Amino acid sequence: MTRDELQAAMHKLIDLVRERGATLATAESLTGGMVGAVLTEVPGISAIYRGGVIVYATDLKATLAGVPADLLADVGPVHPDTAAALASGVRERLGATYGLATTGVAGPDPQAGVEPGTVYVGVAGPAGVRVRRLSLSGDREAVRRGSVQGVFELAVELVAEEPG
C-alpha cells in the first residue's frame, strides 16, 4: 500500500459522497484519528466531513460512539460486530449519511489474544452496514495506514452501490 493508493481511495470516496450530497463521520480506535486527519488534508472537505471520535479506550466505544456495553463485554473491542456498531453509532451521533469505523490491533503486541494486524473496518449508510476483516502485516505504522486505506475502499464500495 502506497501513499498514492491511499490518496486515490480517499479521493474516489470524497467524489462519490459529494456527488450524492452526502456526509461522512468517523469513529476510530487503532488509527487514532488518522482517517480524519487524512480526510482533512483536502481543501473544502468541510462540505462533507461532519467530524469524528477517537475511541481508543474500550469504554469510550460505548459512551462516545454508542456501541452497546453488553456487546463489548461479550465480544470485545476487536470484532466485526464492534466495527459495525461503531460505524452505525458515529453515523447516528454525528448526523452523517455515512459512518466509517476502524478497530483492531496495530501492534507490536497482541491485545486480548488478538494478533497484531487483525483489523475490522466498518461502514454504515442509509442502506445498511458492511464490515470487512483485514489481515495486515508490517510495523505499527503500516497496519494503521492499511486500516485507513481499507476503510476508504470499503466505503467506496458501499457508497457506489447505494442509489444516488
UniProtKB/TrEMBL annotation:
Pfam families: CinA. Residues 9-156 form the CinA C-terminal domain. Coiled coil: none annotated. InterPro entries: CinA-like_C, CinA_C. NCBIfam families: PncC_domain. This is Nicotinamide-nucleotide amidase. It comes from Kribbella voronezhensis.
